[in-house]
């Protein structure tokens, strides 16, 4: 069960009605539909109508004025819990203000079960601050977001690993937030709430972190742009995508969104059903290193160091671990592929699966990866990787420290452009969603 009613704490000055985005970007399908009590109207806005990227924004408007909240899922097509939860949130009823939900932002990637679209574009890297978004889909999504000008914006993602000291392991079980006292307090409150009422395994405890600073990686995220260009309270929620049932992950997402909107709009507790029906065993099915408890988790949820109100972005990074550079994780370094394996864990069949093994070979074989020359090109080959009881469905590469997993393929070519050490990480994904990573370091000798 879930909470399905939002009520107003106070009127924040946001108008309940807005003019829809221009017809070139979006169009309304159907008219407003009153709910049984006559309290809300429901509209739909079609984005990229008539194209393969066509998707829908759902707009719920209450009779009473109040703030505007916007929730997005499916920026990455392989992060199933995020877009599933957003689809449920689109059906919520509100008592005040406006709720806008885009459940399946990246329809092509969702259809293919991939992180990026068919052209390899990462949708959540197209929203540079102060600039026009980079693709037609991103521009049309931004037209809707900017038209409704939300007071609070929440983007739902998943990661194959837990957010800890090393973002290469993933960024799951975290709420990343924009600067400012309200966003900081809301994220901390949501973490306390979800850990207290929904998390039984301390290894799966949520923590918070600030958005990465302007001009640093990861950049081009929708939540960042909404916070910095529209002055919204921005949040990016990451749940662990492996070893936990889809139903549980969706429940985490919806509970966190409820709490964040409650902090912003004071949700009505009546009939919310926000408490889990039964305690859930969230122990990951596979005893991977991803399930180790993050070192900062206890101090993060309290965020004691951020006692002064934040008015500038730069103040965030001193008291909390800054948003990792490997997004999707998603994102905040949003994690890499988990393909259709999200659903595979629901029936328990994946519990006995053997993990895949990642392997990197350098081609030509006679090349010494620790004695390269600047400008030299080599081939990195992942064909030696294996999955004992399944197939490998994705090969993702992160080139150099601080970069993201933005290259894919069983083999890639790498050109060393400067002297020094250049770490290269390979992450492979099995057809059941299980993953493995390995790393080599390329070095130049001059």
Automatic annotation (TrEMBL):
Which residues fall in a compositionally biased region of kind Low complexity?
Answer: 268-277
Chain intervals with Polar residues compositional bias: 121-132
UniProt keyword Hydrolase, yes or no: yes
Tell me the SMART domains matching this sequence: PKD
Q: Which domain of life is it from?
A: Archaea
Q: Mind listing the GO molecular function terms for this protein?
A: hydrolase activity, acting on ester bonds; metal ion binding
Report residue spans for region: Disordered. 114-134, 267-365
Biased composition, class Acidic residues, residue ranges: 278-349
**What residues form the membrane-spanning segments?**
none
What is the required cofactor set for this protein? Zn(2+)
Q: Which PROSITE patterns does the record cross-reference, listed alphabetically? A: PKD, TAT
Domain PKD: start-end pairs: 375-446
For the keyword Hydrolase, the answer is yes
Provide this UniProt record's keywords sorted from A to Z. Answer: Hydrolase, Metal-binding, Zinc
Q: Where is the signal peptide?
A: none
Q: What is this protein called?
A: Succinylglutamate desuccinylase/aspartoacylase family protein
